[in-house]
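hey so u asked for the seq, here:
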Amino acid sequence: MKLQLNTKLTLKWVITYAIAMGFFEAAVVIYMRAYLYPQGFTFPLKPMAEVLLMVEVFREAATIVMLVCVAVLAAKQKWQRWGYFLIAFAVWDIFYYVFLKICINWPSSFLTWDVLFLIPITWVGSVITPVIIAVMMIFLGYLLVAYNQKEHVPLPKLAKWLLLIGTLVCIIAFTIDYVKFLLVQPHLDFNLLASQYIPEQFYWSIYFLGVGLLFTGIITYIRQKQKMKLL
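ran it, structure tokens below
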């Protein structure tokens, strides 16, 4: 599973870009927290001006677009592009926390609650939860890049379904506590809701079910590659 020289070089640039994005993202969050949480970040979230909230949502969306663009430019083969995207996304996510820890000594532990995403609703979880998934993304991304250097090794249907369902289950784990909070609220004002919401429970059983499905999907892909060698 050795990488060709040109693949190694491309991978190095993709990783470098992702690390830089991690610092850029951390810097934005540091500025926001200095403005909104001078005493330190905590729940419930403080209300934001509507324009700032909209900017933040579009900033998150723009981040995904940037990662997609890099993946598309990094390779011509579809599955390699997916691999580079997964690696870039995961490295960015991990180094985002690394730079926050270096710059402002946050989070205090891997179990610290964090807002993970705002699209389409608020995702919350302990810091360790996206990091675990990011490590798996790097591994799967590396496989996709390495397996598709000389031949076409797509994900088998079973692996696709396992990865898709596993992803959806993990998203449910990240959002279910907030959804339960929304269901008992009489209003739909985001700022007002945000100023009232405090995470109460993380559904670890759902999360690890999702992680298990993702891991099984990756193993399925590895086994397919091994079968191809035997043919």
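The first helix runs from residue 5 to 36. Residues 5-230 form one domain.
lmk if thats what u needed
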